[in-house]
TrEMBL record:
Domain Glycoside hydrolase family 65 N-terminal span(s) in chain numbering: 19-250
Protein residues bound to Mg(2+): D764, D766, E922, D923
Alphabetical UniProt keywords: Magnesium, Metal-binding
Protein name per Swiss-Prot or TrEMBL: Beta-phosphoglucomutase
Residue span(s) of domain Glycoside hydrolase family 65 C-terminal: 700-726
Residues at the catalytic site: D764, D766
Sites marked Important for catalytic activity and assists the phosphoryl transfer reaction to Asp8 by balancing charge and orienting the reacting groups: S867, K898
GO molecular function: beta-phosphoglucomutase activity; carbohydrate binding; glycosyltransferase activity; hydrolase activity, hydrolyzing O-glycosyl compounds; magnesium ion binding
Organism, scientific name: Chlorogloeopsis fritschii PCC 6912
CC cofactor note: Binds 2 magnesium ions per subunit.
Swiss-Prot/TrEMBL GO biological process terms: carbohydrate metabolic process
Family designation: Belongs to the HAD-like hydrolase superfamily. CbbY/CbbZ/Gph/YieH family.
Amino acid sequence: MDIKAHSQHLTYTDWTVSETHLAPERFNSRETTFTIGNGYLGTRGSFEEGYSRALPATLIHGVYDEVPIVYTELANCPDWLPLVVIVDGDRFRLERGEILSYERQLDVQRGVLSRKVRWRSPSGITIDIVFERFASIADQHVLGLRCQVTPVDSESAIEVQASINGYPENQGFNHWELLDQGKTEHGVWLNLRTRSSRIQLGMATGIKLSGAEASLQVTNPPGYPTLTASFLASPGQTVTVEKLVTVFTSLECENPVEVACEKLAQLPEYSSLLDAHVQAWDEVWQKSDIVIEGDVTAQLAVRYNLFQLLICAPRNNDRVSIPAKTLSGFGYRGHIFWDTEIFILPFFIYTQPELARNMLTYRYHTLPGARRKAVHYGYKGAMYAWESAETGDEVTPRWLPPNDFYGEDIRIWCRDREIHISADVAYATWFYWQATGDDEWMRDCGAEIILDTAIFWSSRVEYNTKYERYEIREVIGADEYHEFVHNNAFTNRMVQWHLEKALYIYDWLGNNFPEKLNELDQKLNLSSGRRSRWNDIIANIWIPYDESTGLIEQFEGFFQLQDINLEEYEPRTKSMQAILGIEEGNKRQVLKQPDVLMLLYLMRQSQEFPYSQKTLEKNWDYYAPRTDISYGSSLGPAIHAILASDLGKTAEAYERFMQAALVDLEDVRGNAADGIHGASAGGVWQAVVLGFGGIQIGNDEPVAHPHLPHGWRRLKFNFLWRGKWHAFDLRPQEDMETRRHADMEISLPASSSESPNIRGFIFDLDGVLTDTAEYHYLAWQKLADEEGLLFNREANEGLRGVSRRESLLRIVGDKHYPEEKLQEMMDRKNQYYVDSIQNISPKDLLPGVLTLLDELRQAGIKIALGSASKNARPVVEKLGIANRIDAIADGYSVQRPKPAPDLFLYAANQLGLEPAQCVVVEDAEAGIEAALAAGMWTVGLGPASRVGEAHVILPNLADTDWTKLRAKLNDAAAQQQKARV
Ligand code: BGC
Ligand code: BGC
C-alpha cells in the first residue's frame, strides 16, 4: 500500500482514493465520486454539516415518483447524514473559518468513507473532526455514521446535532408528504410518503456518545427530527458520537416506520455493525476482485468501478435494476437503459450470477409494460422501453427543453426508434443462461422474455418486395447521432440473432419442458406459422455487409453522407453533436459511439457472423476514426479498448481503457456530477477480463488469451462458469512463455508435454464439407406433405446430424405406423433426396474446404469422411473431392449411430491411426459427442450453444487454415494439460 499515484488532488493506493484538497468547483462531481451504498440504497458523498452548493442524495431502488416531462424518477429520499458540530457557538462548515488540514478517503475494500479535518473556527478555536460512514451490506436497512471531535488547543463547549432531513429535493422538486414523526426511548423517527406513487418510507435514528459526560436532548421541528448532545471537551480529549439509522419502505414491508423503529431498538454497537459490514465486503471481493500489479492507477480505478457497481446491484430484490447513473445522481432520473444488460451485466454474470439474475428478472416482471408499449405502437408481443422504470412502460422523455432561452424544444426520438433494446435484453438473457446453466430460470422467466420480444420483431420488420428481403426502417441504432435510419446493421443482425435464439429456445422447451412450452404457446401464440415467419426473417433479413471487402455499412446510405475528419476539430471539450448541432450531425459520417463495431463486439463472444478478425480490422479502420470517442457517449471507450487490444493496438487500447476507468474519478467528460457512469464501469470489467485477459469460452470452459498493457506485471481475477470458479493469474507474455516452460519441465510427463501428434482428419459431410441440408429438408417436406404430417423448416433444424430413422420418428411424432410403412417412407424420402442430389457439383463445396483439404494433404495428413449418410459416397464424388479422401465411413459402416463413437473409430481404423492422432470436424452436437467419446480431437463448426463441447470452435471453415488450426489445437491441448496438472 505504499505505492501512490496522484492526480487532480486525488491520491490512489491500491484500495483507496483520497482527496487532500477541497476544490469548490469540483464539489458536485466529488459528491458523486464519494458515493457509498449497499445494493438497497446509494448515498452521495455530501458533507454531514452541509455545504452551500451541495446536492445531497440518497436514492433507494424502486422508490420512483411521478414528475413532469420525464414521467417518473427516483425520488431523493430523506437525508440521513446531517450532523452539525457547534464549537463554542461557531457552527462547523468548510466555507467558514480556516481549513488547516483536510483529507477525504474512500476505502473500497471496506466500503467506508471517512474525512479528517483540522479546522480553526472564526473565533480562533482549533479542533480535529473525523467523520466515518458506511451503508451496511451485511444488513441493508442499516446505516452508520461516526463523528469524533478533539479540541486541539483549548477547552471547548461542543454541541452535536444529529438529524434526519425530511425535505430532500430532486433539483428543486420535493416528492414527499410528511405523515408523522416522533421519538422513542432509542431515538427519533420520521414517516413520509411519496406524493403520487404513494410509497411510504420510515426512517429512525439514534445516537450514542462516548468520551465525555453529555446532556442529550430531543427536538422535533416538522420534518427534521433532531438529537442534540452537549458536552465540554479539553484539548486532546476525543469525544465520539455514533449515529445509527434504519430505513424501510412499503416496497418491502407493510408498516415501514414501525419496522424501522423496532430495528433501531435491536441494533448492536456501531463497531459490531461495522465489523459485519467489512466482513461482508471481504466475501464480495473474494469473488469479484481484480488484481493488477505494476499500475496503481489502473488497479485502484478498476476496483473503484467494480465498487460502484457492487453498491448499486440489487441483492434482495428482483423488481428493480441498475439505472444508467446507478444510485448516485440525478442524471437520467434513475431510468434503466441497455447500459445494464449489455455493459454492466457481464461483470455480474461471471462473478455473482445471482445478482445478474435479479436484474434480468426485473425485465421479466416488466414484460407487461413492454407489451403495453408494443400495443401502443401497433405491434405485437413485447417491445421493451428504451428507458424503463418501475413498470416497464416507456419513460423516455418525448421532449426536452433547449439549452438556451430562445431555442426550440428538442424531440427525443429514442422512445420511438431506439428499438435494439429488446434484442439487447434477449442477448443478456441468453448469455446469463449459457454461463450459469440456470435452466429453471430460463424456463420460468428467460424463455418468455426471448419469445415475446421475438414476436415483437416479427411484427416490426417489413418485407421489401422489390428486393425480396426483410428490412427494419426508421430506427436509431447504437449510434444516437443518426436519428432516422433504415436497416441499421447492428439492429438487423441483433434481430436475426435474437430470432435464431428464439427458435432454439422453443425447441429446447419442447424437448425439456413441454408443459411450459404449452403454457407459453397458449399465452403468446407460438404457432408454426409464426415460427416459420421467424425462420423466413432469419434467412432473408438484410444485413448491409459487403462480402468482398468485409465492410459493413452502418445503415442504408451511411457511406453517402458527408465525410468528416474529426482531427480538424481538435482540441475540443464538447461533443460533436454540441459542435455541429443535431441536424448537421445527422448528415455526416460521425458516430456518437460504436455501432458496427458494437455489433462486432457482441458477436465476438460466440465468434458469430459477421465477426472475424478480418471484418474487425476492416471496420475498425473505417469507423474508429469517425467515432466521437472523447465526448460522444461514455459507453464507447471501453468497447474500443477491447477491440483495439484484439487488433494489437495496445497503446490505443490502454488509452481508451483509462478514459473509461477514470471517467468518474477524474471527471474526464465533465459530467460526473450527474452520477456514476454505470455502463462505463461495466465496460471497464469487460475491458480487463475479456479484453486484456482475453477470456473466451473454449471447450466449455474459460480460456485466457492475454495481452496485458505495457507495464502490467500481473493480472489476476476469478471467473465463474457453470458453477465452477476459474482462477486466472496472468503475467506479461514473455513471463508466461518462461513460466509455461518451467511448469512443464517440472510437472508434466515428457510424453504429454508435447502438442498433439495429428496424423489424420475425419470430416463430417453435411454442414462441414457441403450443405445438403436443403436437399434433405425438401425431401422430408415432400414426404410430410404427401402424408399430411406437420413439418417445416424449424422442425427441420432439429434434425441436424440425426439419422434417417430417428428423423422420421420425430416427424411422425405421436402417430403410430407399422414398421413396413416406416421403412417405405424412409425409402421414399431417400429416393427424393437421391434424385435431388444429382445436381450437386464442386460449386456446392463450402468456402475454405478445398484449400484446407489440399493443405492437409501437403502436410502429409490423412483424410477420411465420417458421415451417417448412406449417400456419402455419391455426394463426395459429385463434389469432386473423392481423390482427396483416403477412407470413407458412412451410413453402411457401423450399426450404432452418433453419438456412439463407432463411426469415427471405424474411420480411424481405416486410416491406420490411433484415435488420439485424429481430429474430427463436425457441426452437430451428437457428432462432437461421438468424437470425444472416441478419444479424438474435435473442431466444432457453429455456435457454442451447439458445438460448445469441441476443443476448437469455429463458425465454419472459411477463414481458417492448417497453421491456425494447429495453433488452436495446441492451445486446447495446453489448456487440457493445465487442467490436469
Ligand atoms: C440520450 C438518450 C436518452 C435521452 C433522454 C439523451 O441524451 O442520448 O439515450 O433517451 O437523452 O433521456
Ligand atoms: C447513449 C446511450 C446510453 C444512454 C444512457 C446515451 O448518451 O448514447 O447509448 O444508453 O446515454 O447511458
